[in-house]
Amino acid sequence: MLVSAPPNVRYLSGFTGDNAVLLVLPGQAVLFTDPRYSIQAAQQVSCRVKICKGPLVEGVAAAVRKLGRVRIAYEPSRLTCAAFNALESRLPMKASLEPVQSLVEELRMVKSPSELALIRRSVFLNSRAFSLAVARVRPGMTERDLAAEIEYRMRRLGAEKPSFDTIVAAGRRSALPHAQPTTAPLRTGQLVVIDMGAFVDGYASDMTRMLFLGTPGARVKKVYAAVLEAQLAAIDAVRPGVFACKVDSAARRVLRAHGFERAFVHSTGHGLGLEIHEPPRLGKRDKTILQPGMAITVEPGVYLENFGGIRIEDTVEVTKTGCHILTPTPKDLRVI
Fold first, then answer.
1. Among 3.40.309.10, 3.90.230.10, 3.60.15.10, 3.30.300.20, what is the CATH number of 113-335?
2. Is residue 68 pLDDT above 90, yes or no?
3. How is domain 2-108 classified at the CATH fold level?
4. Are the C-beta atoms of 85 and 94 separated by less than 8 Å?
5. Minimal CB count within 10 Å: which of 67, 110, 163, 211?
6. pTM for the complete prediction?
7. Which of 31, 34, 41 is closest to 8 using CA atoms?
8. What gap in Å lies between CA 294 and CA 126, rounded to an integer?
9. Where in the chain are all domains bearing CATH 3.90.230.10?
């Protein structure tokens, strides 16, 4: 198998560079990278390393020509068309390429104890960064200022980088699930959504919390209570042997009862680890069976045009008997 996705290469070999492929053979593996990473590869991996001065596909093709008749699995969603065509044109007639979808990603769904420990570290650091940043929030601060403060706090606490572009959106813009921070100032009377995560030793965290500047009105309290109820219902559904879609349906059932189902426009959550979005997807049709050791997010939301959006998200570990919420940050609407 030719493994080309950097997170999958890292998972199988330990190599953290951004230009490498791993050729997995019976009983052995070969890592192909370029001269910039020769020292790093020698330090990080225990398998054979091949340093290529030209395109990596040339090194892979040369190695394959020595194998005789062989079928090579590859990651169709992770290999560019250009790389596939370059590799295919260099292979001998007796070698064939066969797509294999999400094989390594399925292995990565269930985390080892050491991986879960890293995710917990990331979650706790992320929550600490949130607390430090939110303590500085004042009306007049811009969305971008707050996003920058959050990311500064993450890095000061030891994060490598955010696990995605930090989301800060106030007022009506909070109804945009993936809003980008702008220069708009935070104003009294606004909802503010903060969706943030950090990478710590390669592993991601993810959390969403809500602020309100001033005194929230009855409608804000009503929507918030509905989303919180939906999130708690979804968490209650997380346990081994349950289809991922059942967690999603638990959240939707609550929001339907409150009249907000159509305002919930994304899935209830996703796996996370070496990537911020990994299988399983907690969506309407995902039949993945939850297993102990999975790390997932639970994040229902309601998005109302000309009002705003409310989302509450925790990182959750599936355990042998149910689940454990890793996120320590309180879920109350934070009033400033």
1. 3.90.230.10
2. no
3. Creatine Amidinohydrolase; Chain A, domain 1 (3.40.350)
4. no
5. 67
6. 0.95
7. 31
8. 19
9. 113-335
| Cα–Cα dist 237/244, whole Å | 9
Secondary structure of the chain in the HEC alphabet?
CEECCHHHHHHHHCCCCCCEEEEEECCEEEEEECHHHHHHHHHHCCCEEEECCCCHHHHHHHHHHCCCCEEEEECCCCCCHHHHHHHHHHCCCCEEEEECCCHHHHHHCECCHHHHHHHHHHHHHHHHHHHHHHCCCCCCCEHHHHHHHHHHHHHHHCCCEECCCCEEEEHHHHHCCCCCCCCCECCCCCEEEEEECEEECCEECCEEEEEECCCCCHHHHHHHHHHHHHHHHHHHCCCCCCEHHHHHHHHHHHHHHCCCHHHCCCCCEEECCCCCCEEEEECCCCCCECCCCEEEEECCEEEECCCEEEECEEEEEECCCCEEECCCCCCCCEEC
> pLDDT per residue over 198-255, tens digit each?
999 999 999 999 999 999 999 999 999 999 999 999 999 999 999 999 999 999 999 9
Q: What value does the mean pLDDT take over residues 93-121?
A: 96
**Residue-level pLDDT at 92:** 87
Q: How far is CA 142 from CA 32, 168, 189, in A?
A: 45, 9, 15
Count of residues in the chain: 336
Nearest to 240 by CA among 280, 284, 283, 267: 280
Kindly state the average pLDDT of the residues 27-54. Answer: 97
Backbone φ and ψ of 102, nearest 5° = 60, 30
CATH 3.40.350.10 boundaries in the chain:
2-108
Question: How high is the pLDDT of residue 100?
Answer: 96
175: Cα within 13 Å, side-chain hemisphere: 11
Reply yes or no on whether the pLDDT at 48 is more than 90.
Answer: yes
Mean predicted lDDT score pLDDT of the chain: 97
Strands 28-33 and 269-271: unpaired
